[in-house]
Amino acid sequence: MSETNSQQIINTAETLIESYAKGKRNFSGANLGNADLQGVDLKGSDLSYADLSEANLNGANLRGCDLSFANLSQANLQDVDLRGALLFSADLRQADLKGAKMEKADCDYLR
């Protein structure tokens, strides 16, 4: 049976964590609304266009992640590491950013 390079659909926290552990970093368009990703390490991942609305990312390592056009509305981003992250056109409405590390994060505007 041959391997294919098709994009695996990421729609659960378990699938995301397993894929990251296997070396995958492209999670563009992932559907993870309401996911519990507390403390997860996704450093350097592409999460552009991902739905992370209402997700629990408390204490997560998102350092250097591409979160451009991601939906992070109402997400728990307390104590998250967003240093060096790309946040172009990311939706952060009503997200809790208390204690978030955002040094050198790059964004056009926060909405």
- State Rg: 13 Å
Distance between the termini: 47 Å
Helical amount: under 10%
Number of strands: 0
Mean pLDDT equals 91
State the major sheet. Answer: none
What labels would you give this structure?
single chain; little secondary structure; 0% strand; disordered N terminus
Summarize the structure.
The protein is low in regular secondary structure. It has one helix at residues 13-21. It is globular.
Question: Overview of this structure, please?
Answer:
With 111 residues, the protein is mostly loops. It has one helix and no strands. The longest helix has 9 residues, at 13-21. Residues 1-6 have low confidence and may be disordered.
Strand and helix layout:
Blueprint: H1 13-21
